[in-house]
Automatic annotation (TrEMBL), chain B:
Pfam families: Complex1_49kDa. Its EC number is 7.1.1.-. It is an enzyme of class 7 (translocase). NCBIfam families: PRK06075.1, PRK12322.1. This is NADH-quinone oxidoreductase subunit D. GO terms for cellular component: plasma membrane. The keyword Transmembrane helix does not apply. One of its GO terms (molecular function) is quinone binding. It is found in: Cell membrane. Keywords: Cell membrane, Membrane, NAD, Oxidoreductase, Quinone, Translocase, Transport. NDH-1 is composed of 14 different subunits. Subunits NuoB, C, D, E, F, and G constitute the peripheral sector of the complex. It comes from Polycladospora coralii. Belongs to the complex I 49 kDa subunit family.
């Protein structure tokens, strides 16, 4: 077997993991700055090893399983939540050449695999045999399922324009104009729905600490808890990458600045998305659970459906079809 | 039809949003609250009983620990009752100092409420901004009396410490700093759609209901009644200052928030006027006997604490110790309405409504 083919993905996986640890530090730093605190700055220069220290601490913590918990399910749940988070990274193209696998139905794969995580969360909440955990898991399931629909619907506009589910082809189609402009409605719906998919403020109800203490992972300790948290951050990474690929033109350079390599552009755009996620977290209060459902079904879904109609109609308009038929 | 069951949920005493050791036994049907029973007493220290074995000066530090977010007003409630009973004259300088620290303490208390309330609703940053501003008040108090939370500042007949040189100017600078700062808070919170949707029309208290439950403070004023003891039964120097009493229209949580924010502005106005009128020279302790013997009889005095009417009832047998001391703690009275407000609501409104009442458990349990 070709050693490059074997080692390449493993190396890439480590790069991703390193990036995730940095993202956690970055989030704490950004929120610290917004709140006029320095953020973590004790472990290593500029607090750079903070996440490493946190993970190490969680590793050596006692592993507690509640005596009334459903043990096999309780142990399985973090893994089921965690594995899809990494599996979805397989289809994300970082540049033309840098990706795990090129897949004809990449976007479909992403959306399908990422929804497996919800089973892990529901399992964890149920198996904990804790009322707060159960309420948190129930809310989480309801929320993620309802927001998946507008999320998928908002992408349909792009698929109509490109005529392909392949993420590389979607990026190639954005050579001239990024999809954030012709598909602005789609982007708005996608971004809001992705916030909810990621369980981030203002949609962080599953782990709403004020009502449910900690939500579905209230009984988890040590490394199992770390797995839940880590999967959440890997999803932030994956979702920000997907947003970049779908709407911000992936590795395409703006203004013809092609002398800067594509990976730099990808990282810059990606960081912009990640920063806005953190920014929103530091600014917004939390939506109430019934308003959350209302918003998904009564606002986001109609807007997403309208966007599909709009895209289909505009494809037939002369002069505008260059934006919508690629 | 599926068979469904009611679930008994124990919220507290160790819960991040009950603001202390309050325990709520909540019966829920799905996400709807069917029954609530608040359980209190986890912080009961028997202040009122202890006071019967202490002379009046010794009781003052105990009052600090009741409503620990506005210890100055608690100090005042006790010394005011004793002074009234003994008919003591308070030097003007001491009275002005008392008003300044009480109003600053009201601002600090409302800032904590605002920050923690937004934290309950899920916004993290306002909490840190509020604490940044409250910190300045605490530093002022620290400079004045050497403590940041439990001040033990007032004495029967005056105050313990005079303002150090430059302190009044610092307080003045703080007022000038905080007034424009309020716009920042309004810009961040007041117009936020999520915040408005979470608070408007939730936890409505009608004026009739509020009076039936003996609510006071912002909890009463939010329903449209302009009852403020500083205006209605002026004590200390409050009849010398120009200020308004903010009242609400709808009696909901959003009005409570606006009311308290406006109260901060009004308090700033009072501090500003008190600093302008502050006498240059003068003593800070009136003429009081070495041993405070309160004449036989009883008295009830009420003052306006940040949370409502803080009353002090002293029964004296002519000794240097009270025969019976009773505090009317506003948090305790305001908390009684909680079950009425919560039944029929969704569990996701529980924390918002509880936070809106603004309780301090040290005061509820006393």
């Amino acid at each position: 077997m070709n050693p490059v083919l074997v080692m390449g993905p493993i190396l890439l996986l480590f790069v991703v993991l390193g990036f995730v640890t940095m993202a956690i530090l970055f989030e704490r730093k950004v929120i610290g700055w917004i709140q006029m605190r320095p953020g973590p700055n004790r472990v290593g220069p500029w607090g750079i090893l903070q996440t490493v220290a946190d993970v190490l601490k969680l590793l050596i913590k006692e592993d507690i399983i509640p005596s009334k918990a459903d043990k096999p399910l309780f142990k399985l749940a973090p893994a089921i939540a965690f594995i899809p988070a990494f599996a979805v990274l397989a289809v994300i193209p970082f540049t033309e050449s840098l990706q795990f696998s090129q897949f004809a139905v990449g976007i479909l794969y992403y959306l399908a695999v990422s929804s497996i995580t919800i089973i892990g969360i529901l399992m964890g909440g149920w198996a904990s045999n804790n009322k707060y955990a159960l309420l948190g898991a129930m809310r989480s399931a309801a929320q993620m399922i309802s927001y998946e629909i507008p999320l998928v619907m908002s992408v349909v506009g792009i698929i109509l324009s490109v005529g392909s589910l392949n993420l590389v082809e979607i990026v190639e189609a954005q050579k001239q104009v990024w999809f954030i402009f012709p598909q602005f409605l789609g982007f708005a719906v996608f971004f809001i729905a992705s916030l909810s998919e990621l369980n981030r403020t203002p949609f962080d109800l599953p782990e709403a600490e004020s009502e449910l203490v900690a939500g579905y992972h209230v009984e988890y300790t040590g490394f199992r808890f770390a797995f839940f948290m880590l999967s959440e951050y890997v999803y932030v990474f994956a979702m920000a990458s997907l947003t970049t690929v779908l709407f911000l033109g992936g590795w395409n350079a703006p203004f013809g600045l092609t002398m800067i390599p594509g990976i730099v552009w990808f990282v810059l755009k990606f960081l912009l998305i990640v920063f806005s996620l953190f920014w929103i977290r530091a600014t917004m209060p939390r939506v109430r659970v019934d308003q959350l459902m209302e918003f998904a079904w009564k606002v986001l879904l109609p807007v997403a459906l309208f966007n599909i109609l709009l895209t289909a109609v505009l494809q037939e308009v002369p002069y505008l079809d260059f934006l919508y038929r690629l | 039809m599926l068979r469904t069951e009611e679930m008994l949920l124990n919220v507290g005493p160790q819960h991040p949003s009950t603001h202390g050791v309050l325990r709520l036994v909540v019966k829920i049907d799905g996400e709807r609250i069917v029954e609530v029973e608040p359980v209190i007493g986890y912080l009961h220290r028997g202040t009122e009983k202890l006071a019967e074995d202490l002379n009046y000066t010794q009781i003052i530090p105990y009052t600090d620990r009741m409503d620990y977010l506005s210890a100055m007003t608690n100090n005042y409630a006790l010394v005011h009752a004793v002074e009234k009973m003994m008919g003591l004259e308070i030097p003007e300088r001491a009275d002005y100092l008392r008003v300044i620290v009480m109003e600053l303490n009201r601002i600090a208390s409302h800032l904590v409420w605002m920050g923690t309330y937004l934290l309950d609703i899920g916004a993290m940053s306002p909490f840190l901004y509020a604490f940044r501003d409250r910190e300045q008040i605490l530093s002022l108090f620290n400079e004045l009396c050497g403590a940041r939370l439990t001040y033990n500042y007032m004495r029967v007949g005056g105050v313990k410490w005079d303002a150090p040189p430059g302190w009044i100017e610092k307080a003045d600078a703080f007022v000038d700093y905080l007034l424009p700062q309020m716009d920042e808070y309004h810009g961040l919170i007041t117009g936020n759609e999520i915040f408005v949707r979470r608070t408007k029309g939730i936890g409505i208290v009608s004026q009739e209901l509020a009076i039936q439950y003996a609510l006071s403070g912002a909890n009463l004023r939010v329903s449209g009644s302009d009852w403020d003891l500083r205006k209605k039964e002026p004590y200390s120097l409050y009849d010398r200052f120009q200020f308004d009493v903010p009242v609400g229209k709808n009696g909901d949580l959003y009005d409570k928030y606006l009311c308290r924010m406006q109260e901060i502005v009004e308090s700033l106005k009072i501090v500003k006027q008190a600093i302008d009128q502050f006498p240059e020279k003068g003593t800070i302790m009136g003429k009081v006997p070495r041993v405070l013997r309160v004449p036989e009889g009883e008295i009830y005095t009420g003052i306006e604490s940040p949370r409502g009417e803080l009353g002090c009832h002293i029964v004296s047998k002519g000794k240097d110790k009270p025969w019976r001391l009773k505090f009317r703690r506003p948090s305790f009275y305001n908390l009684q309405i909680l079950p009425t407000l919560l039944v029929g609501e969704s569990i996701s409104n529980l924390v918002a409504i509880l936070g809106g009442i603004d309780i301090v458990l040290g005061e509820v349990d006393c």
